[in-house]
Amino acid sequence: MNKIQNVDLKVVGVTFKNEDGSSRKDHILTLAERFKDRESEIKIDLVREPTNQYDINAIKVIAEDKQIGYIGKEYASIMSPLMDDCEEFTATVKGIGEYKNRPFCEITINQV
Fold first, then answer.
1. Are strands 66-70 and 59-63 parallel, antiparallel or unpaired?
2. Beta-carbon count within 10 A of 92 CB
3. Lowest mean pLDDT among 35-44, 71-80, 94-103
4. Strand order across the beta sheet in which 102-111 lies
5. What average pLDDT does this structure show over 106-110?
6. What is the pLDDT of residues 46-61, one digit of tens each?
7. Would you say residue 2 has pLDDT above 90?
8. Sheet harboring 59-63: ordered strands across?
9. Does residue 16 carry a pLDDT above 70?
10. What single string gives the DSSP state of each residue in the chain?
11. CATH for the stretch 7-111
């Protein structure tokens, strides 16, 4: 079976607040300042959230230990069964910042 390689995705749900009340937008803008200068890589983790009440295939996008959003439903439905079968994925930031007063983060996903 072919592995998922070099897939660019926009992180969704970036305008919502996290469960702890923290702002995903604020975190994205803080990371964007660092990314702009390319002074360091931003650590991205993808975490399954099978108990999510809106999507059983939910995959959280965590940047530097704080949630910034989710993988969109279309790709989450493909990736979540693989993750449940212990397949691993890496994600790197392709672009991050603000466009028309909205935060955005685009990541590149690869199956290990």
1. antiparallel
2. 12
3. 35-44
4. 7-10, 102-111, 89-99
5. 96
6. 999 999 999 999 999 9
7. no
8. 44-48, 59-63, 66-70
9. yes
10. -PPP-SEEEEPB-TTSBPTTS-BHHHHHHHHHHHHHTT-SPPPEEEEE-TT-SS-TT-EEEEETTEEEEE--HHHHHHHHHHHHTT--EEEEEEEEEEETTEEEEEEEEEE-
11. 3.30.70.2330
- The answer to whether 26 touches 34, Cβ cutoff 8 Å, is no
CA distance 13 to 10: 10
Per domain, the residue ranges of the chain are 7-111
